[in-house]
Amino acid sequence: MGFEVLKEKIKQSTVKVKIAVVQPIDKEVFKALKVFCDAKLCHFILVGSSNIIHREAKQIGLTDYEVVNAADDKTASAIAVSLVREHKAGVLMKANVSTDVLLKAVLDKESGLRSGRLLSHLIILARDNGRFLGMTDGGMNIQPNLDEKVDIINNAVKFFHGLGIQEPKVAVLSATEKMNPKIKTSFDAEHLIERSKKGDIPSAVVYGPVAFDLAVSQRAREVKGVADKIPYDADIILVPDIICGNSVAKALIYCAKLHSGGVVLGAQCPIILSSRADTAQERLYSIMLGIMQCIPS
Amino acid sequence: MGFEVLKEKIKQSTVKVKIAVVQPIDKEVFKALKVFCDAKLCHFILVGSSNIIHREAKQIGLTDYEVVNAADDKTASAIAVSLVREHKAGVLMKANVSTDVLLKAVLDKESGLRSGRLLSHLIILARDNGRFLGMTDGGMNIQPNLDEKVDIINNAVKFFHGLGIQEPKVAVLSATEKMNPKIKTSFDAEHLIERSKKGDIPSAVVYGPVAFDLAVSQRAREVKGVADKIPYDADIILVPDIICGNSVAKALIYCAKLHSGGVVLGAQCPIILSSRADTAQERLYSIMLGIMQCIPS
Q: What three-state secondary structure class fits A147?
């Protein structure tokens, strides 16, 4: 499985998903939009400064799109959220707006997109071996507690089910596979495995604590003598906090050059929260991930 | 600068460093030792099960080495430590012994290698652009406080001075470059920069908070509009805790395939704490890093 496989699935789907894009301004965003429009993979509603949007759209040759004018970032966010509430869009996408501003609109108790579940961020990385690696939560929940981690895992597991992976393997990340009472995540792993056994995390295998190498390398598991206990790579890595998740993901993107996309799960619709520094390709992959949540897998 | 440059420096040095190796058993360790022996880069004292050591040494064709027999891991660790105390060895190297057992011998108040400074782990990664990236502390201090972080930075800075980098740039890692009162490392950065200004971290530039991408990518800094404020890549990344440091380093090693070596600093001698899953090459680089601390830069 890789992003090319996703693209094929989206192409073959009869559902044409509508995406509300908040404040598209820079050329990288428009490059991504154009690829989808040209391939007729989805439909875009662009919300923001209509002058800039029309200018950039014209310059890059984007034709098939709608525009809703908005005076500023806050207004654009609120309008895009309302489009989802009114079922005029199925996916929400952040462009040149700060995450804080967009999430404030999403989390608004009156007019937002809360579904009763915790919102969480999932990054999907395409590994060299053709597998997807999910990492959560490196974008949203700063230091989640154990109940929140159950929600974060479930959001990611549900996403993987949507990709057709029936029983994703969820590794609870730590610095070592050994129980160390001084390392808090040792207890996290114990607790989350227990919760999984109780049925709180259905259709997934939760295991850990594991160090990163054990989650991604059969060779490391063999050398460390845990290959019997852990005979598989992780599909999803649960990180302890936002700094760890953000840093590991960025190390994989910037240094390992892994293709990646990010999506926020747990709201009334998938939310694409790409970073200001993302390339057009990264945006493409994030858009695909968002669309995947709206079409039958 | 890369590991090849280090090798040249070691070759050209007139000082022949002695390394006490604790419990060398597997073939990967002996492969590394042989490279150094053949090139006459240093001298090894192998401490552990002498039967196994002689058998493996013979098999790989290792000739120039000393052996001190030890019945078990604990004894081997204690003997190796005493060799350093008696100035018979200048570097301590972990082979097939658990980190905990070796560090217990190192940290023994009576017979260990304490120097009054905090011990900390530094991993050195050779980036594609030819620069070394130090990451600390992903191997030893689980959740260091701010005073300990000052020591951890100073250990790494001193190491970089030894590599000939006069004023290393130290990035305090976070999930964003923005001050966020909910993210503890925002305050860490503020405090550590203050300590640096007071002279507690001499001959270094401490900055932050920064997300990983800003520490390693000029493009990310430009897109996020901080290229003026941060016009350089980091030499050293201070991670908030062991899980983050361990995971980011392993992501860079296992997925970005960066060459790396690790060393423990702050004791009476450099300590090479390579992981059980390290390859011969990773061990080579760690040995070089240890030797570099014993020869004039």
A: helix
B-facing residues of A in 150-189 (CB < 8 A) are: 173-176, 180, 182-183, 185
What is the tens place of the pLDDT at every residue in A27-45? 888 988 999 889 889 999 9
Helix A280-292 and helix A27-38: axis angle, to 10°? 50
Q: pLDDT per residue over B30-60, tens digit each?
A: 988 999 989 889 999 999 999 999 999 999 9
Is the distance from CB of A56 to CB of A27 less than 8 angstroms?
A: yes
Cβ within 8 Å of A, B 188-227: 211-213, 216-217, 219-220, 223-224
Q: Is the peptide bond prior to A137 cis by the omega test (within 30 degrees of 0)?
A: yes
What separation in angstroms does the CA of A56 have from each of A24, A49, B66, B219?
A: 9, 11, 72, 22
The 10s digit of each residue's pLDDT in B207-234 is 999 999 999 999 999 988 999 999 999 9
Give me the residue from B243, B248, B252 closest to A174, CB to CB: B243
Contact state of B246 with A277 under an 8 Å Cβ cutoff: no
Reduced to 3 states (helix: H, G, I; strand: E, B; else coil), residue A83 is helix
Helix, strand, coil percent values for chain B (each to nearest 5): 40, 20, 40
Helix and strand counts by DSSP (H, E) for chain B: 11, 11
* Number of other residues whose CB lies within 10 A of the CB of residue B71: 9
Q: Which residue of B has its CA nearest to A244?
A: B244
Return the number of other C-beta atoms located less than 10 Å from residue A232's C-beta.
Answer: 13
Burial class for B199, CB neighbours closer than 10 Å (0-12, 13-18, 19+) = exposed
Q: How far is Cα A43 from Cα B209, in angstroms, rounded to an integer?
A: 38
For the record, the structure tokens of A264 come out as 């926020």
User: What number of other Cβ atoms are within 10 A of residue B52's Cβ?
Assistant: 15
Q: For residues B68 and B78, what is the distance between their CA atoms, to the nearest angstrom? A: 12
Burial category of A145 from C-beta neighbours within 10 Å (exposed 0-12, middle 13-18, buried 19 and up): exposed
Quick one: which H or E segment has residue A99?
helix A99-107
